[in-house]
User: Fold PhzF family phenazine biosynthesis isomerase from Lysobacter niastensis.
Amino acid sequence: MDNLRIYRIDAFTTERGHGNAAGVVSNAHGLDEAQMQAIAAELGHSETAFVLPARDASHDVHIRFFTPITEVPVCGHATVAAHYALALEGGAMGVRRQLTGAGVQVVETRYVEDDFAIRIRQSPPTFAKPLAPDMVLELLAALCLEPSDLDLRCPPQFVSTGHGKLMVAIRRRERLRAMEPDLAHLVELGSRVGTNGYFVFTLDTHEGEDALSHGRMFAPAIGVDEDPVTGNANGPLGAYLVRHGLLEAVDGVARFRGRQQAGNGRRGYVDVSVQVEGGEPVAVTIEGRAVLADHSERPR
Assistant:
């Protein structure tokens, strides 16, 4: 049998060593779930994508995503990484339909500046009710924030476009940078607030910046203490900002760039487009660039 082709791709960046590192096994046919989980744990990235043949005519490729400790339904940066790896192998440009645990997504690979950009149509946005006041106070305690840190325009709320996050807006970027959450408390809190991922963001930007938002994302319950750049946080963020009147549409589409930087310094960005109908967000697309960090082969 052919060797496994294994990549490390830095996604949502054009700088090697930044963005969000993902593993990719581009020819994962024949691997069972236990083998995929073992490879993901060995590689140690926040997510590893396993590219499998299509199961039926509803899609062109099947991709499964594993953190070091569990499978997740879908992952934005690992999707960018997987389709970037396929492009490096000579895969066709244009549109593919990928089957994920969150359903079928449309993914477009295109040439940009002598490289590839990956555009992902996420699942339609869904919104939970904003957190009750008592849960907001416990959330702030777990995040090691004060009530005065909150941006009162933005209620803490779970939003999903396939693999959702709890949106938590704060007022100042310097507070965002200094955060040191209580990760064990976040894990314990997750089942009660209905999330495994907490996206803390701010709209505190400087004049002339190319970004509308800056964020950090924590998901210790699935083995990701902090994710450097997160497609399944910035995409839902776009829908959330439209819902709360903080992002305006032009000709039915609201666009922005979300920047993210982890405590370890890894940074990157996600370009987000939200289709808006009747003032409501109805569809979300994210786009990211990527850089090849490493490639190897091993026997199956």
